[in-house]
Structures are given as C-alpha cells and as structure tokens.
Amino acid sequence: MPEQRFYATGKRKTSIARVWLQPGTGRIVINKKPAEAYLDRETNLNVLGGGISGQAGAIRHGISKALLELNPEYREVLKRAGFLTRDSRVKERKKYGRKSARARFQYSKR
Fold first, then answer.
1. Which domain covers residue 10, as residue numbers?
2. Is 108 a domain residue?
3. Domain total for the chain?
4. How many Cβ atoms sit within 10 Å of the Cβ of residue 22?
5. pLDDT tens digits for the chain (110 residues)?
6. How far is CA 79 from each of CA 46, 73, 76, 84, 104, rounded to the nearest angstrom?
C-alpha cells in the first residue's frame, strides 16, 4: 500500500498555512521546527505571512481541512466546533482625515 499524504491550506488574516498529513509517529513540524506531538500522524506545516495569532488560526484551519481529506466523517464534528469556517476578519485600513480607521482627531471647541 503506498504511503498516503493529505494536503490542505488554511488561512487567517494575512497568514497562509500549507499542511501535509501522513502516517507516522505523531511528530509535528512547523516551519522546519519541531512542536509537541498530539496526533497519531506526522504533520508538516509551512506558514507564511502575518503574526503569531494569524499563523495559529491558519494552522488550525489547515489541519482541520487536512483531517477532512483524511476522513470525511469528521465533517460534522469539525463544523460544529467551527474549525472549517474561514475567519475572514482582517484589520480595517486607516482612512485619511482620521486618526485611525474610525477614530477622529481630537477636537477642541474652545
């Protein structure tokens, strides 16, 4: 039986995680650095862009999608937990004439 690898991508803010699941010891590698093992599969992740929070969300989304490729029966549980839904919230841009995205500059009447 050939070795099966399952691939998925996850996204959060500006981060993109590429995930490969394959049978193995449960070793998790994120950007070529080992992490704590919590699966009975070997997991390789490559995360680009964003910060810690965005990358963690992208990894969660990517692993969930890869598990779905592995076994479609996981769909109900993953969907109920909200792991299959892409969190589309991103930082709102700063507008001109304002201090930040929504806050106005300080105004003094007198």
1. 6-81
2. no
3. 1
4. 15
5. 567 888 989 888 888 889 888 888 777 777 777 765 445 567 788 888 888 888 888 888 988 898 898 889 989 999 999 999 998 899 999 999 999 999 999 999 98
6. 24, 11, 5, 6, 40
Distance (Å, rounded) from C-alpha 54 to C-alpha 32? 18
- 45-61 in b/e form (b: 16+ CB < 10 A) is bebeebeeebbbbbbbb
Q: What is the CATH number of the domain that holds 71?
A: 3.30.230.10
**Residue 37: predicted pLDDT:** 42
Strand partners, 45: 19, 30
What DSSP designation does 58 have?
H
Burial zone of 67 (CB within 10 Å; 0-12 exposed, 13-18 middle, 19+ buried): buried
Is the pTM of the predicted complex or chain greater than 0.90? no
In a domain, 101, yes or no: no
Q: Residue 105, CB half-sphere, CA atoms under 13 Å: how many?
A: 6
